[in-house]
Amino acid sequence: MAQGSGVALRAAGDALMDAIDLALYDACHEEGCPICRLRLAGERRYLLRLLSEFVNDAFVRERYIASLGFCPQHARQLQALEQDRWGDGLGNAILCEDLLTRMLKALHQHRETWTHCSAPRGWRPRRSRIALPHALTPRSLCRVCELGETLVARNSERLVRAAAEAGELWEAYADSTGLCWDHLRQALEYVSSDNSLAAVRLLDQSINRLQALTAALDSYVESHDYHHQGEVLSAEVRASWLHAVAWLAGEEL
Question: C-alpha dihedral over 147, 91, 253, 144, to 10 degrees?
């Protein structure tokens, strides 16, 4: 796959691309699902900016508290990023200390509620009817997950448009690894009924890629039979099972 740069397209003068299309164009020249790549890159940028600039920002902190922190995946990513970049955990500590202090106070209050809870003699409730306090109930989703989904939607729409126009961006995508299953499904949901050509192009690209992948998987499986011991496998065949998992589950961090 040739290495490309979307910046060069501006000099070509064929069609002026905006920053979103340029990023998508460049992602198509990398290995793996381009929409996964852009989502992961966007999430990482957000977390790095949070650590370097916004740990003490009141609005960001309130948003963090409202969701009771990040989801497990992004909480671990935030931890790893700070350790890898700065060899420290101050930003994580500041965020966690604020949130845990509030949660500890709420847990004490909830304990008091249960301590003073009484029921009529002989009454056996089937389940608790005391709701968790406001401070222990998430009021929003993980901010990083929300950002990631916004990036997926935006880039899926742009890819559908590119499929309809069949310009340089589509040519770059057609020669790429293609979308993982989940992002192919989402992209197809953005195709309107009067734009069937875009859907056909997206499907054809994925079908061609999957046909090659399943053939490589067959060779990989067969190579484990004793009749094929000692055969030299191509790089494509050796990595086929990894590519299959990535197609089904999406790219990882």
Answer: -10
User: Is 10 in contact with 17 (CB distance < 8 Å)?
Assistant: yes
Going by pLDDT thresholds of 50, 70 and 90, the confidence category of residue 121 is: low
Tokens 């966690």 found at:
96
d(CA 179, CA 190): 14
pLDDT in tens, 213-225: 999 999 999 988 8
Place of tokens 């890159």: 41
Task: For 75-91, give one letter per residue: b (16+ CB within 10 A) or e.
Answer: bebbbebbeeeeeeeeb
Distance CA 25, CA 4 (A): 8
DSSP string, 161-190: HHHHH-SHHHHHHHTS----HHHHHHHHHT
Q: Please give the Cα distance from 66 to 69 (Å, whole number).
A: 8
* pLDDT given at position 122: 56
Q: Is the pLDDT of residue 199 over 80?
A: yes
Domains of the chain, by residue range, sit at 7-115+132-249
pTM (predicted TM-score):
0.82
Tell me the C-alpha to C-alpha distance, in Å, between residue 230 and each of 71, 76, 147, 242. Answer: 45, 41, 48, 21
**Digit-coded pLDDT (tens) for 123-178:** 555 555 777 777 788 899 999 999 999 999 999 999 999 999 989 999 999 999 99
Long-range contacts of the stretch 133-139 (C-beta < 8 A, 24+):
133/106, 133/109, 134/106, 135/102, 135/103, 135/105, 135/106, 136/68, 136/103, 136/106, 136/107, 136/110, 138/66, 138/67, 138/68, 139/66, 139/67
